[in-house]
Amino acid sequence: MIIEAVASGSATTRSDLSTLLKLSPSTVSVRVQALLENNVLREAGAGKSKGGRRPQVLETAGTPSTFAAIDMGGAHVRFGVFDTQGNLLASWEASLDLSLPPRDVLSSALDSLTGADLDVDLDATLRGISLGVPAPVNQELQRIDVGARMAGWTHFPIREWMESHIDVPVAVENDANLMALGEARHHPEIERSITVKAGAAIGSGIVVDGKIYHGASGMAGDISHVRSHRSTDRPCGCGNIGCLETIASGVALVERARANGMSITSLPELVARAHEGDSAATTLIRDAGRALGEVLCSVVGFANPNALFIGGRLSTLEIFIASIRSELYGGCHPLVTRNLLISQATLGADAGIYGGFELIRDTVFHLPALIH
């Protein structure tokens, strides 16, 4: 990325950046100009000529800045604080109750962020906050228009409310999209990737050339409501029957486990049982992986990505990843899977906050696309 390349000394001129990052001179010029205008970089005078006009030397500049990422899950929220170069300065988790009114949830999240014991002064350095939510986000209005798991949030002005309570820009995005963005920016050599978040619910994000693909109505990647022939007649929160979420999500797995006589109350407990070798837990999770893999056959065959990353709580189990991989190899055309990377998400639980950092930094600096 441009900022990291300049900060590390790997590149000191626009020409260096173009060569190092394999970007056109015009693309580098536009992005460097945005960073100059935001006082992230500065020109430090003319460098040595290589046969033409002496180039301007670039260096990092200005007051240190920090960015905060808040990633909401089904029952927890994860926080991250980053510097401009993308270094994670601090991260922590707190419990979350999405059934509470949005004002209460957001107030609690902001209190946790501003009240954290950090080595940096957020009051002086914070430039922006991203918020990941487990629901589709209206990109224009930065709110949730339909959310079965966040029904009380429908049409609530999330960005406006947060910006009125903390005087920095706020960007709101779907949690799976942020996980996908975090993974994609961590692997800049991969042009097209799909990242699946398999936790309490199931979602996925699509990233092409470093940018989230939202689709016409912001629903791109919403595989949780794709119908599966493995499903039962259990109704889904969306109102349909047969959705993948009703058989392969963490919530569904816990319900099935309890119906089978297992004394568990949460997905982490079920995953822990599987890690310990419990056969009943392992069977449930293997079946969920097969159901997800079957649906992903169509998705991967249609999109033909370079990589498929699997994140979320269930991805910590190799049997889950192996079941998905087996379905894909058996159900896709060989040309689709020949060079396809199928892997656990590299950034693990932090993928969402890394993606949140990338989103809010791009937003604050008005960067037109990937800064790399």
TrEMBL record:
Q: Which family does it belong to?
A: Belongs to the ROK (NagC/XylR) family.
- Keyword Transferase assigned to the entry: answer is yes
Please give the PANTHER family that the UniProt record associates with this protein: GLUCOKINASE (PTHR18964:SF173), ROK (REPRESSOR, ORF, KINASE) FAMILY (PTHR18964)
User: Sorted alphabetically, which keywords does the UniProt record give?
Assistant: Kinase, Transferase
Q: What is this protein called?
A: Sugar kinase of the NBD/HSP70 family, may contain an N-terminal HTH domain
Record-linked Pfam families: ROK
Query: Which Gene Ontology terms cover its molecular function?
Result: kinase activity
Key word Lyase present: no
Query: Which InterPro entries does this one have?
Result: ATPase_NBD, ROK, WH-like_DNA-bd_sf, WH_DNA-bd_sf
